[in-house]
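FORM 7B: Structural annotation worksheet

SECTION A. Query
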Amino acid sequence: MNRFIAIILLLLCSAGYTNAQYIVKGNVTDTLNNMPLYMSSVVLIRAADSVIESHGRAGYDGNVQLNATKPGKYIVKAMYHGFADYVDAITISKPITELGTIPMVSKENLLKEFVLTRQTAAIKIKGDTTEYVADSFKTKENATVEDLLKKLPGIQVDKNGQIVAQGETVAKILVDGEEFFSDDPKVVTKGLQAKAVDKVQVFDKKSDQAEFTGIDDGQKTKTINLELKEEYKKGYFGKVDAGGGTDGYFQNQAMINAFKSKRQVSAFAIASNTDKVGLGWRDNDKFSSGNGTTEITEDGGIMTTYTSGSGDDDFAGWDGSYSGEGLPKTWTGGLHYADKWNDNKEHVSANYRYAMQNVEINGLSITKNNFSEQRSNKNQFSKGDRHGVDGLFEWKIDTSTTLKLNVSGGLKNMKTLSEYTASGVNTELNSGSTNRRNITSNSDGQFFNADLLLRKKFAKKGRTLSVDVKENQKQTSSNGNLTSYISGYRFDTTTNTTINSPIDTTNQKKDNATSILAFSAKATYTEPLSKTVFLEVNYSTTIDNSTSKNLSTDNGEQQINSLYSSNYKFNILTNRGGLNLKYNLKKINISAGCDVANTDYNQEDILSGANSRKRNFNNIFPSASLTYKVGRQTSLNIYYHGNTTQPTITQIQPLRQNTDPYNITIGNSNLKQEFNNTVNIRFNDYKVLTGRYTYGGITFSTTNDAISTAQITNGNGVNTTQYVNVDGNYNGYAYMGGGIKIPKTVAYIGANFNPSLSRIHNFTNGQANLSDNTSLSFGLDFNADKEGKYEIRVSPSIAYNESKSTVGDFYTHYAIYSGSVSGSYQLPKKFEIGTNVDVTIREKTKVFTTNNNVVIWNAYVGKKFLKNGQLEARLNALDILNQNIGFNRNIDGNTISQNSYNTIRRYGMLNLIWNFTHTPTGSQPAAQGPMMIKR
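SECTION B. Predicted structure
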């Protein structure tokens, strides 16, 4: 009888677990010794009525799994003999909830009974994702997401709002996994409130295909996802900031977010003539074409490698952001909508953006290489406006089939008027010239992108099929005029006289049009060979067709000037297939594979026919990756990838660009594709009890047949540059850093070190030239934050830059010392004062001997009103010492240049800032409760 009753109870329990729709997973660990706690007891309790929902025991590896019949709020309690009980409040809202490490502390290490707040579990490392619990990092009232990010170890936010996480620039910020305003990080970080954020997740976002199959394809984007607290997903919240200042400065911005369950509706608007423009659209590649040339540029004292557009079209270069050059006026706004329904089977999201920006620039640039020196004064006015829209529709047709459609499009117009007064000197021949020129341009462009992805999972685990079809269209057109007057001279050392040459006049009408149509289709099939080994087979076809018409007509003439004109078609057809193997173990994931491809070039010179040709290339693309989870909070990632880069139509068409008569660029129809080999290593580690955080990484790449330049300098100091292929180029950089919370204080101290190097091959006046560039930067970061009292942050840094070339005596090196001190203090009656000082000391060089040291001092005083200080009046004083100079220094191979320009300088501003929050009940959201550890 007892056996019968036991069987009945067992069947009932089994039935109950069979009906469970939600799973909670975790790992019970002795955090001091980093050991799993076998047979530890874990209970899941319903928060509403304190009824036990389920119970489990940890296995030999510490893993435990609990079941829940419905979503909602629960309490997790973990117990083990000799250890303090662990209690945490969780919310179950999806089929699988990952708790990560459940930290347990032995009673002998507890000197007294205490409450362990979320700081203990402030950071979790799950594979290649680092997750920060937002409430563990205290921010002041009405702080923004940007203020929160500045407090997270391993994340830096510069004065321009650019975010660097674990040494890499963040390109995407998501909110609850949703694309937000076309990936404009500043809109999110400056508009959303920090108190609305539950978790901040930092990871390398893989392609949809890689996320689906689990096999890495090398496409990664450094991404931050902000998980909002449940209470902020009901009602609305937002921010309004209205400001007026001296000298006609104004700054007005507003953002509102209305969330209801899975539905998101947000809107923002900005009108400003300060640098608080909240732009940063990263879709320049959707309008322009070209990888351009690799440069090394000084950015905030740190040398970084970037790639610039190579076209002569001002329109292509405007990405909607303000770099600090000139005086801007900006009007921009956007709408965001996202929703899920039908049990999350259907998902839609959309963004619309508009921006209009006027910029006035007055500047002086000085450029020097082995054989020439150029000076150019620029006066420029530009006016641009743009519309952008993107949308996503995802349909889970059934439990195994998903259809996903991404679309985006945009329109842009740019009008530019530029006036230059310039001079060029050939330092070897004691000759040179002077130049005056005017350029007008009116540009239009549009783009449309679509991506349709069908994914299917079969009954056998690991067997999948996916088909991805993409289309990309871009069109640009521009018309304008170039008027140029250049007069040469030569110094005769025999007679000690200057001999002038006649003035050369150019007066041309420019009509340009470029179109790009790309289509690709890829099918990928995965098959499990065992429980741990998976095979991927893929095949793809890509068609990339480009046309570029650049016509120059001498005014008063009917016939085009063939020397400065081109009409060219460049069509590329690629067929590619490959195999990849992935090996999955508990702590190690290894993948390796190889693709082979055949690429056809069809080049048609419509204007002259002289440069038409057909070519064919065969390529092998190896790849490998390893992810090793060293410990619960420690991970190591190693990745290798080989890939090609095709020359752009700007680089390959036989066009002679003369928009800048001192720097004439010529295309090369014989260019071959580049092949790049890249290795990336990353490491992350976090110690829970001490709060110690360390990270590091190395990236190194070599390029065969790199697209470089061959430059000739004539007697007037004019540089004529043509694109050529070279071997031996490489570049590498490393990043490492860490920090620790100082025991028994509210202070945190961290450090970072970032070295980089590159080698660039080119040709100068017929000689093979080799340029080596090196940069080293080191920085410290100290911050202390006592909630409700004060904040202080000190961040000194030093950067050293060196460049040397084998041709001539070109060698330059200089250091940049910089530091930032900021702080705020809470006064009685809800008053607050704050200040920040940024110091930049630039070492002089033998080429540039002027003093460009700068001290930027800002300060404010604020007063908060209403409940919870939702309304604030703030009086700001910007650039109190009036030392903000527009300045940057670039090194490009064997060329160094320095650019100074007008920019925003000293002003005062009064701002009224209103942060508002409304929940369905009309009350403020409740604060998160602490995590409890009991003796």
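SECTION C. Observations
The radius of gyration is 30 Å. Confidence is low (pLDDT under 50) at residues 4-20, 111-120, 279-319, 921-935.

SECTION D. Sign-off
Analyst initials: ____
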